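Structure request: SUMO-activating enzyme subunit 1, Podila minutissima.
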Amino acid sequence: MEHTITEDEAALYDRQIRLWGLEAQQRMRNASILVAGMRALSNEVCKNIVLAGVGSITILEHENITGQDLGAQFFLRETDLGRNRAEAAAENARLLNPRVKVFVDQEDITTKPDSFFTTFDIVCLTGCGPEQM
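Returned structure:
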């Protein structure tokens, strides 16, 4: 379902619209993006995607937070230890831009059928081996 940019969104994303145009921002506004694997790099990717104003982002990660994650992932806090990485990161991503729908999928990527990935406009994989790609 296509959604047009509102006046409020145009004001919020004014710099971006002036840089790459209203049509490009409109396409971003309607984009659905999957980020699979929540590691340090994907934290940065998620932050930039959410701040850019995409329509929705789904974070796919089945692993829980360990102490090693805390030094490399700015979305996570010490109080998040033991929680699912995607769930904890999503909470903070939502705070960056409440206009973006942030979804969480806690399943293992290896259990997903090929058809799952076709529901997204862009798929970003981090921490995956060649067999998963």
